[in-house]
Amino acid sequence: MYAKTIKKRIKLCSSANNFPDILCFQFCSPVRRKTLLMAALVTAKDCFARKSKEEEEEIERIYDKYREIIATLPTSRGWCTPTLCKYQGFWFQPMFGLEGIMWVQQQFKCRHTDVYLITNPKSGTTWLKALIFSVMNRHRYDFSSHPLLTFSPHDIVPFMEVDLFKSPPIADPEILPSPRILATHISYTMLPESIKNSSCPIVYIGRNPKDVLVSLWQFMIKMKPKDMPPISLEDGFDLFCKGISPFGPVWDHALGYWKASIEYPNKILFLKYEEMKKDPMLYTKRLAEFLGHPFSLEEEANGIVQEIVRLCSFENMKNLQVNKTGQYRDREAKNDIFFREAKVGDWKNHLTTEMIEALDQITKHKFDGSGLFF
Question: Is 185 considered catalytic here?
Fold first, then answer.
């Protein structure tokens, strides 16, 4: 099944990347065939292999149990859905990712070569997906035919709880070649033991809660159903301060990974959005070193770091056709909703003095004594 998927990707990529037609694949030399297989891109949508009727029925039975549990959870007003529900100390949209999280917790099998990208929503996820993929695959793709020119970062680096395991039919992540780069918004306390107990690197990016609030509020307005009124900034602020936001509280989410990064510095890299925006070259090199793919002196001299930073920059990504008009896989939304401003300090243009003071006070209280600040 995996070979068939790879061959399919080779055929789809042939016109854009000058690969021979799939009919020529079987006649290639072993070296050329390996080159083609390496260059082929396997995305999330390629992982939905056909399962037996028995497997499908068993998966559906498991998800039915998840839905029964979700129906009993405490609820609150939602942002772009009628409600959010509280599960293991965090808030989730009931039918948009929580079932997938339960599956990940109970069923997901970590691979020792995996790389995990973890964020709270609206903290630089799209940017970090692009950077990690580009750093780890810089020897496979040249910049003139790079997958990021024709694929959204969310297609290339899937969210486990949404893109792979949201609801049946679910993906088979074993189809993804190693090293897999997988993303999630799951808190540290909720990670499956297979990930916690592994030596797989985890990259986390945090962001100033004030900017998270503003970005989340505007994103949720775009994501809401047409028949649902948009949430006001005042209502969003009130919910946010109470910790009621998708995958929130944002402070608990960040603090969990911050403390874990101190305890396991060789396993968890904690990045700050603001620092990365200030010096993307420095942090791209730091990211590469942490992932075991450091840049050579020759690469640095040839401008490879600068080229990756340019390719993954907000300005470049936002203006790519795939991110202006492309559709995000199974959601009723275009890719352009992931590219708004990407500014540091945009909260100054939206929040009142009272809101700023309240958020700063909560942040100070939550992070007190931890060493974490934004």
Answer: yes
